[in-house]
Write the structure tokens for this entry.
Amino acid sequence: MTDELINACSELKAVFRAHGRLVARILSAPAVPRYDGFRLIGRRKDTGLLVAAVEWTRSRETRALVPFPVTWTACEYVHPEDFVPVA
């Protein structure tokens, strides 16, 4: 969708939350076909390496698009001392 300059691991999840909400809102428009979900994948611009991913699915109860509880980031593996699990 866009190129984002990310300087910290905490920024990565924030950017993914914002982009996820935007895509969910676009896909919830009445004129858009009903999708069961979508995935956002983040890659480094210089190397193409995967750095983050999140999946959104349609809730059976509300039919709204909701994020999977976990946003995967490479920070958890590259910088484990900086990683703080979010419940």
Observations:
- The chain has one domain: 9-82.
- The mean pLDDT is 80.
- Residues 9-82 form one domain.
- The first helix runs from residue 9 to 27.
